[in-house]
Write a structure and sequence with these properties.
Structural class of chain B: alpha/beta
Strand order of the largest sheet of chain A: 4-3-2-1-30-29
Number of helices of chain A: 0
Oligomer: heterodimer
Shape of chain B: globular
Number of helices of chain B: 11
Strand order of the largest sheet of chain B: 6-5-7-1-8-11-4-12
Strand content of chain A: over 45%
Helix content of chain B: 25-40%
Chain lengths: ~325, ~425
């Protein structure tokens, strides 16, 4: 699969809808998208249609929908209401709902085989779920409960599987990264990415804020990219976004990018490592091996909150405030 | 300007001897330090006779949606849910489980409405002065200084007014400091920023305790001589009192040392600077400081409002609950008014940075303790929290309520420096009687 020519990357169709779209899942080999919204609903969008629309078809969360993932014919959604909900996409009906965490679920990931779902929450756990049955396989821990000396609750923001599904990583508000073996739950590595930590007011006891918002492993599973913003401030649109790439087994940083505009909230690693795509105010195609921006395109009126990429990497779908957009690289 | 005896809710059983007693106790405390309060009878006597205020000022503007007036499920509501409180039918943000269990002890005004939408400048000055639309052009003392003046105890060697700031926000660049204006230096706060104790509490190595006391005695003697014949000169009196206050504060340095508290008490307040400062505040008011402001910054969440509030609100919940429990357990709550207040609230609209901006039209404040009817939820906002639905409360009415709760006639007249008569709150201002005990 040769990498598409980024010079031809351009915006395609867009769907407007009020409010904030927060997360996105795409059905394989199609242009059918599922987008989680701040109104608690999950919207269906089909970009194959002449005039695509966002239709709210799945309702069950009482708060923001923060994560979506596809496992076979089932869509799994996570929310700030602490619930995980399995949806039958054929029947467009709820299969089961689980009180998955004690606090808000921040992100959800599904392994490539579609067999295991990972969720992370402010209860400081990374939970692994059997995608078919909804059974809790195990709970992974290893983060501090509290940020001392501030006495603030800690948070776990991100989770991601290696492509082979053997490992899962999560990051917290202290910018700690922990990687576990999925099969055993054994901790395989941990390191800190301190450049993401906003601690400008830490000494004054005011506020601590981690700028890591997404994580993605390289296709060979050896590297882990972290995306967010450098320790500038808590304004998600201010300054450049940052991506750092680590050899996660040693914790050694191998590459850093500061690019685009605002805190990167969408992240994708090309299956042939042609580029890493990080997005917020801009969509930035980054060289994963050296600090080089291959292509940067403004996101337009809606900053990107999440993204999905087609199998051949010739179409990118983004969601944000009031907008779902397709970007394409014509063949 | 000081209130005359016979304050509205002062206990008649105590009033006749109050000043004489406290004058004596003040000297005793000044000489021996706080630990005399370990003597139960003495502490009890102080506790029964003294009105005090702790102001938790949420500098930068905490969001009413993520605290006292949640709107879950509404477009303005944000991601957090609401939880049931100990007051039937009243729900607070899920970030406040401890206070939810204590709401029957606290009154909430959800319909507070103020014109200010800035952190600093004339709008803040007007708000902190009680929105004196009846006194245009006059720079008014702020709430803390007014209360320090009203609750001041003659002969007390401790300061009347202490400000504890968690950070420089709200203190320097964004100036929301209390100021006494024409009330005099005695009502100006001793401000402590980013720590637990004021500077200069220890003598330099070159000055012994005996030397310092001898110098202070000489200075005081000279000041007394200078003051003779100038008894009506407030500046001279204030100058002399300021030195006495410094000495009194040094004598009571232990008040700022939270390590003297049992570990279980410290644990309840938590490790944050805000928690530790709140514990210092309790120690200060227990010893006789009438007004302490604990300035908790910085709530100005134009970006990532929910992340900031997910951090700061649980901390507020923990510290406020610990403070109220502590005051109650020590028998202080009936004479101590705990207020939460800020320069403004935050917008219903969630901006593109997941932030909330400045907002004054409708937000929430709380009152607990002295003179307050717990469990009263006064006023309401509309479904999306964009405006007051019932019982709008202004800053002047809020101040009147505070004065009244403390037994101070909010319509009592005093004279400005130019002789112009002035009331504590604007003419015909009504307190919010629904929250008064």
């Amino acid at each position: 699969m040769p990498a598409p020519d980024l010079e031809r990357f351009r915006p395609g169709k867009a769907v407007a809808h009020p409010g904030d779209f927060l997360c996105l899942a795409r059905e394989p080999d199609s242009e059918r998208l599922w987008a989680g919204h701040a109104d608690g609903r999950i919207y269906a969008i089909d970009f194959a249609a002449d005039k695509p629309e966002a239709k709210a078809v799945l309702e069950g969360h009482a708060s923001y929908v923060s994560g979506l993932g596809l496992a076979s014919n089932t869509l799994v959604s996570a929310g700030w209401d602490k619930k995980l909900i399995w949806w039958d996409l054929q029947k467009r009906a709820r299969v089961r709902a689980v009180e998955a965490h004690k606090l808000w679920i921040r992100q959800l990931a599904v392994n490539a085989a579609g067999t295991v779902v990972a969720t992370v929450s402010d209860d400081m756990a990374c939970n692994l779920w059997d995608a078919a049955s909804g059974r809790l396989i195990r709970q992974l821990t290893g983060f501090n409960e509290t940020l001392l000396p501030l006495d603030y609750p800690n948070k776990v923001f991100t989770c991601s599987f290696t492509p082979d599904g053997r490992h899962v990583a999560a990051t917290d508000a202290e910018c700690k990264v922990v990687v576990w073996e999925v099969e055993t739950g054994r901790e395989a590595a941990r390191f800190v990415a301190p450049d993401f930590l906003f601690n400008g007011m830490l000494a004054l006891g005011s506020y601590a804020y981690s700028g890591i918002r997404r994580a993605a492993f390289s296709p060979d599973g050896r590297s882990l990219a972290l995306a967010g913003i450098r320790n500038g401030n808590a304004f998600v649109h201010a300054g450049k976004g940052m991506v750092q790439v680590f050899d996660w087994q040693t914790g050694k940083k191998t590459c850093e990018h500061q690019a685009g505009s605002g805190q990167f909230e969408g992240l994708y690693w090309h299956p042939k490592s042609a580029w890493v795509l990080a997005a917020h105010g801009s969509l930035c195609f980054l060289d994963p091996a050296q600090p080089r921006v291959l292509k940067e395109v403004k996101s337009g009126e809606a900053a990107t909150a999440d993204l999905a990429v087609s199998e051949s990497a010739d179409a990118v779908y983004t969601v944000g405030r009031g907008k779902v957009r397709k970007w394409e690289i014509p063949g | 300007m000081r209130s005359q005896p016979g304050r509205l809710c002062g206990s008649p059983a105590h009033a006749p001897h109050r000043r004489a007693f406290l004058a004596g106790v003040g000297g005793f405390v000044g000489a021996a330090g706080l630990d005399v309060l370990g003597v139960p009878l003495l502490a009890d006597e102080l506790q029964r006779r003294h009105k005090r205020v702790i102001l938790l000022f949420l500098s930068g503007g905490a969001s009413q949606f993520e605290t006292w007036d949640p709107k879950p499920g509404r477009p303005t509501g944000g991601p957090f849910q609401a939880i049931q409180t100990s007051v039937h039918g009243y729900r607070v943000c899920e970030l406040m489980p401890r206070m939810a269990a204590r709401m029957h002890k606290t009154a909430v005004i959800r319909s507070f409405s103020t014109p200010n939408v800035n952190h600093t400048g004339p709008g803040v000055e007007a708000l902190l002065g009680g929105d004196r639309k009846d006194a245009p052009g006059i720079q008014m003392p702020t709430l803390g200084s007014l209360l320090a003046h009203e609750l001041s105890v003659p002969g007390n060697s401790l300061p009347d007014h202490v400000g504890l700031y968690t950070s420089t926000q709200g203190f320097d660049g964004d100036n929301q400091r209390d100021t006494a204006r024409f009330l005099g230096a005695r009502c100006e706060p001793i401000n402590i920023v980013g720590k637990l104790a004021p500077d200069g509490m220890k003598l330099p190595a070159s000055v012994s305790e005996g030397d310092h006391r001898a110098r202070e005695a000489l200075r005081d003697k000279l000041a007394e001589r200078f003051q003779a014949g100038r008894e009506r000169d407030a500046t001279v009196a204030s100058h002399r009192a300021a030195y006495q206050r410094v000495r009194g504060t040094m004598d009571n340095a232990g008040l700022f040392d939270v390590s003297r508290e049992p570990q279980k008490v410290r644990d309840r307040y938590g490790a944050s600077l805000f928690g530790q400062q709140a514990l210092v505040a309790r120690r200060l008011i227990e010893a006789g400081v009438p007004f302490v402001r604990v300035n908790r910054g910085w709530w100005d969440a134009h970006g990532e409002n929910f992340e900031l509030h997910a951090a700061l609100v649980p901390n507020l919940d923990k510290v406020m609950a610990a403070l109220l429990d502590d005051l109650e357990q020590r028998g202080l709550i009936d004479d101590t008014l705990v207020v939460t207040f800020a320069e403004m609230g935050r917008t219903p609209t969630i901006n593109a940075q997941r932030g909330r901006d400045h907002w004054g039209r409708c937000w929430s404040v709380t009152l607990t303790g002295c003179g307050i009817k717990g469990g009263v939820i006064h006023g309401s906002t509309n479904a999306d929290g964009t405006d007051v639905a019932t019982d709008r409360v202004t800053a002047a009415e809020f101040y009147a309520t505070i004065f009244q709760a403390l037994g101070i006639d909010h319509q009592r007249e005093y004279a400005e420096p130019d002789g112009r008569p002035m009331r504590l709150t604007p003419y015909e201002t009504k307190p919010v009687s629904a929250v008064l005990a």
